[in-house]
Amino acid sequence: MADFWKRFKRNRGAVIGLAILLAVVLIAVFAPLLFPQSPWKMVQRPFLPPFAMDRFPLGTDTLGRNVIAGLAYGARVSLLVGLISTLVSLLIGIPIGALAGYFGGRVDDALMRFTEFFQTVPNFALAIVLVAIFEPSVQSIVGAIAIVSWPPVARLVRGEVLSLRSREYVEAAILSGQTSITIIWRQILPNTLSPIIVLASLMVATAILLESSLSFLGLGDPNLMSWGYMIGAARTVIRQAWWLSFFPGLAIVLTVLALNLIGEGLNDALNPRLSRKGK
Amino acid sequence: MLKKLSILAATLVVAASTAYAGPVSGGRANAVIQPEPPSLMLGLVQNGPTQMVAGNIYESLLRYGPDLEPLPQLAKTWEISEDGLTYTFHLFDNVKWHDGEPFSADDVVFSADVFLRETHTRLRQSLKYVESITATDANTVVFKLNEPFGPFIGIFEVGTMPMIPKHIYEGTDYKTNPANNTPIGTGPFKFKEWVKGSHILLTKNEDYYVDGLPYLDEIYWHVIPDAASRSVAYETGVIDILPGGSVENFDVPRLTAMDNTCVTDKGWEFIGPLSWMWLNNREGPTADKRFRQAIMYAMDREFAKDALWNGLGKVAQSPVSSSTRFFTDDVNHYDYDPEKARALLKDMGYDGTTVRLLPLPYGETWQRWAEAIKQNLEEVGIKVEIVATDVAGWNQKISEWDYDLAFTYLYQYGDPALGVARTYVSSNIAKGSPWNNVEGYENPKVDELFAKAATAVTKEERQKLYTEAQQILTDDVPVAWLLELGFPTIYRCDVKDLVTTAIGVNDGFRDAYIEK
Amino acid sequence: MLRFIAMRLVKAAIILIAIVTLNFFLIHAAPGDPAAVMAGEAGAADKIFLEQLRAQFGLEKPLLTQLGLYLVGVLQFDLGFSYRQQMPVADLIFDRLPATVLLTITAFIISLVLGTVAGVLASARVGKWSDTLISTFALLFYATPLYWAALMAVLVFSVQLNWLPGFGYETVGGGYKGFDRVLDIAKHLILPAGTLGLFFMAVYMRMTRASMLEVSTLDFVKTARAKGLKPGIIQRRHIFRNALLPVLTLAGLQAGQLVGGAILTETVFAWPGIGRLMFEALAQRDYNVLLGVFFVSAAMVLLFNLITDILYRVVDPRIRVS
């Protein structure tokens, strides 16, 4: 562990990323304490510019709602949706990849055709249709994001499993009569963990982007203040009020950037063999 | 915001009092049409954009002034018998269809009795009162009713009863007739070309039966699918006329502050768009009258009007719009009063059940409005969950009564019997339509009042009945009335006489001219 | 090569049918149907009118029959009729398709060319400030939401500086002809294609850089160096060529993203393409249009895949020799 942290620390970007992410997480967790009033509450006159009043440092929106409170509550939605949808897509992708890699042959063929099919459908378009059909809510958004983002997981896991499948210790386990499920679960998957963790950190970033894009198009959960929603709602007034779309966008960029940096750091720390080659 | 509003108010006054300098012929009007109409055949399609463009091509027997009094159109004069059962129309005798064929009373009979009876759902409701339609000579048509029907004189409007050429449509399959793509009417402008996704071009009807009209040479309807782009197109001078509803409300103050820009909210008196929230009277907290009244007190409708509608329109006081006939102000007024709302909720013992709110999926303004109302309601302690959906889902949920609160707005068509009764009479409760009595309000007294008022002959009698109905309804609050919507038409000030009737831009550019 | 293309086409056809079928069921599972929407817009919906519309759309038939009829139509290149728009779906889509193709292809080329060039530059100066600069920018683009970049571009280049048009495909009522029209469209294309390309540029840049570094450590490069070939030649002939392979693979995989991204770009820039058409059709449950757009966009993705596959074969020295 200490070794891991030492390697992670060596990547300066990753440390910065971690710091940013930590800040975002803290803001998200303590949003209700920082801003006891609902972010939907109309607190001042509409279109108050930033820095005009101390209590509303980032101004107010079209209905006079506090922009900075919206940002804080938006962090909760982004992180929540990012994390859960990544977990769900891991739950879909890992079994499919593991089965395909382990059994090979027909099973592999069938599962990979299936995966390929989902890679061919325009991702974002499918997500839009899914959310629109099941009606925008946190559940439908998480589901849609998971459904369009599992294929890379499956491919990655398949590749790893394929290469581990022929290792001696796996062969030994097969000969000792363990069931396939046990072997996959006990012997193989633990060894594929590092690349999965790296991929997952990048997937959280992508999921946050996807959620914000859906919300931007008006397909977000209407009861939750999210960054994408704030930008979407500000789009029509961009000429009058630039700050309404600028700040939420900045929040997204920072968060996604942080996650990507962390992903790289994790890659360095967990797969030292690979990362040294690049440097 | 306030400053912008006062500028807006000032321009409204200016627009209303333009001095008469005498019309001149020539010129092209560049207007926006949004969204692109599915078809221009007004007899088959009657949605907003179709009416707006096709109102120049087709005509009906009458037009209506801002006070909803009938004016001549294809009918030069008309008489109504004492008993209110016989309507006789004398037509202009020099009217030609755009293809040169003469227009006659036979066309009127074909349009009303044959074509539109089959295709026009809304007209069909009014035709139930008609016993016969006959052409007594080439220029005279007589409508005989089986019982008096108060609003009957109001149905001869172009969107309700457009005249369809008999010589083209008789005996054909109306829906697939190729002539639908090149509409032929009697109106001041002829159909010239339609480049889908780009524009519709109408040109002057040189043979128009009123001498000297129209003034304009052509009307160019631009299709610009994005709201922000439409306002830029006006700013850059590509567009001269933005009909009501074609730009986002947030853009209105900026555009109206431009030089040489006039704005009017007139031209919607006939249609009288009134917005409200459906309240499900059948179940949940909304079944309790006190809960519904609490909603009325909890909503800050003035704020919504100012912040979302640029101060245009009016807070609705009654189920009848103030521009519709037989409106009365003598009802209980629900001013913004959160305290009263809280008291009512306490009195009924509201248990904190969450109610679902369905916004109208017609763009940003409506979405923001739902958010504002949700906030209003939560402040008096009502728990609200917004349910997001699109146009199709919204239709479905309302028709199947699957909602607690739901935004909508409906047209009144000038008379309570046409556009108001349908929302409140119990005979109009039926699943499958989002436009009938979907709130499930049942009150025999109200049913009786509306039924009597529709067939009463004198105005005074009708007013008395409608006043009572409005008083009962405002007390029962079957739905939560929001605003009489004001859709501003924005245009260059040198375009004159653009909106002269109660049907506004939809009534065509017959009298419009461009000042040189 | 021809056989290879034929095989790929057959495979593509099967995937296309699968996509259409999946979407068919998804779309029909949604609440609300086009008849209700149309009746609603006409401001009147009585039972008779709705029944008429439903019969006209063929909605009263069993679902599988509808699917069968649709697929048979598709095989004859008939995408059905949009009763909402009173137009055959194929006409509707082909009206809008050129705009989307222009947008995506331009963005694809911009991102691929700029991305690989930047990647090569960065890899040639590993660790120097120019590498850091390029990599940082790539990282930033990678983290920026496409629609936000688009909005900010409009704000800066269109609203503030007034250099470029911020919406539309060409000047409305501009009446440009011939070459002037091409110029006009090109001007309108810069911002949408540029912002759509940014994200992918970052992806290709990072991939090229990593891949260049990876290849440069391989044995055959060492051999070439030992032979005394000039570094520039090694860079171009040996390293770049091989480093391009994974980039192309990635480009093929990203094609779906590109078409999806076009939906956002078209929304922000009011670009009259099929992305917007799809979004409008979805709200109105215009089934045939929606299915048609899916069919066409999936076909576009497959086409992009095919192009990258062919490029791959052209570039890959091993495959060409054998």
From TrEMBL, chain A:
The keyword tRNA processing is assigned to this record: no
PROSITE patterns, per database record: ABC_TM1 (PS50928)
Pfam families: BPD_transp_1 (PF00528), OppC_N (PF12911)
CDD domains xref list: TM_PBP2
Keywords assigned by UniProt, alphabetized: Cell membrane, Membrane, Peptide transport, Protein transport, Transmembrane, Transmembrane helix, Transport
All copies of domain ABC transmembrane type-1, residue ranges: 75-263
TM ranges: 12-35, 79-105, 195-220, 241-262
Coiled coil: none
SUPFAM superfamilies for the chain: MetI-like
Localization per Swiss-Prot or TrEMBL: Cell membrane
Bilayer topology annotation: Multi-pass membrane protein
Matches recorded under PANTHER family: D,D-DIPEPTIDE TRANSPORT SYSTEM PERMEASE PROTEIN DDPC-RELATED (PTHR43386:SF1), OLIGOPEPTIDE TRANSPORT SYSTEM PERMEASE PROTEIN APPC (PTHR43386)
Family: Belongs to the binding-protein-dependent transport system permease family.
Name recorded for this polypeptide: ABC transporter permease
TrEMBL record, chain B:
Keywords: Signal
Pfam families: SBP_bac_5
Keyword Calcium: no
SUPFAM superfamilies: Periplasmic binding protein-like II
Sections of the chain in a coiled coil: none
Subcellular location, principal: periplasm
InterPro entries reported for this sequence: Peptide/Ni-bd, SBP_5, SBP_5_dom
Family: Belongs to the bacterial solute-binding protein 5 family.
Protein name: ABC transporter substrate-binding protein
Organism from which the protein derives: Roseibium algae
Taxonomy of the source species: Bacteria, Pseudomonadati, Pseudomonadota, Alphaproteobacteria, Hyphomicrobiales
TrEMBL record, chain C:
Entry-linked Gene3D superfamilies: MetI-like
Compartments, record wording: Cell membrane
Name of the protein: ABC transporter permease
Segments forming domain ABC transmembrane type-1: 97-312
Membrane topology, record value: Multi-pass membrane protein
Annotated InterPro entries: BPD_transp_1_N, MetI-like, MetI-like_sf
Keywords, sorted A to Z: Cell membrane, Membrane, Transmembrane, Transmembrane helix, Transport
Domain of life: Bacteria
Family: Belongs to the binding-protein-dependent transport system permease family.
Annotated TM spans: 12-30, 97-121, 133-157, 185-204, 243-269, 289-312
